[in-house]
Specification:
heterodimer; A: 10 strands; globular; B: 117 residues; 4-stranded antiparallel sheet; 0% helix
């Protein structure tokens, strides 16, 4: 079973920051949090991952709470092309256990 | 970097035939590749883990004689769906785990859509 829970869907206005929450209250100390997204009929695209510290790359920022029980993916300036299903995943023994994800719809 | 390709992207076959899907890591080496299946409006389900030079490890409920996996090199794994039936129609996706770095992120291919008539 997936170790994460996410809201099933979210809307965000184009040009605004999209903040996607994820709960992973049973995460263990050495388990990474990964974020992927899947645009319709395509393979998942890696976005970002982290262990304890906040991370930022050219796509997004990942904010992990100090107790590591939750995290937030931030897309700073959402565009229409960011419409996708976003998966928050706790990697267990090098395996990715996929939950249902959050369907993010960017609206013009 | 970290590009994974799959071929073919789409295949239609008759019931009872076998279909081979290739997964290649184009710009990195991967000792481990993973094969997933995704049905419409569902999440990805791991089918098997493929290690270069050894037998694949299948998830519970996945028939190893039906879904043959070969991982012949550090950049190529193949999945063969043998004697395909309509219920095998699905979106098959592979991923490759990079050797570099301690965290070993998985990178995914674009997927192969299989339709069995």
């Amino acid at each position: 079973d997936a170790k994460t829970t996410q809201p099933p869907s979210m809307d965000c206005a184009e040009g605004r920051a999209a903040n996607l929450p994820c709960n992973h209250s049973t995460i263990s100390g050495n388990e990474y949090v990964y974020w992927y997204r899947q645009i319709h009929s395509q393979g998942p695209q890696y976005i970002i991952h982290g262990l304890k510290n906040n991370e930022t790359n050219e796509m997004a920022s990942l904010i992990i709470t100090e107790d590591r029980k939750s995290s937030t993916l931030i897309l700073p300036h959402a565009t229409l092309r960011d419409t996708a299903v976003y998966y928050c995943i706790v990697r267990v023994n090098y395996q990715l256990i996929w939950g249902a994800g959050t369907k993010l719809i960017i609206k013009p | 970097g970290a590009v994974v390709s799959q071929h073919p992207s789409r295949v239609i076959c008759k019931s009872g035939t076998s279909v081979k899907i290739e997964c290649r890591s184009l710009d990195f080496q991967a000792t481990t590749m993973f094969w997933y299946r995704q049905f419409p409006k569902q999440s990805l389900m791991l089918m098997a883990t493929s290690n270069e030079g050894s037998k694949a490890t299948y998830e519970q409920g996945v028939e190893k004689d039906k879904f043959l996996i070969n991982h012949a090199s550090l950049t190529l794994s193949t999945l063969t769906v043998t004697s395909a039936h309509p219920e095998d129609s699905s979106f098959y996706i592979c991923s490759a785990r990079s050797l570099a770095g301690a965290d070993q992120t998985q990178y995914f291919g674009p997927g192969t859509r299989l339709l069995v008539l």
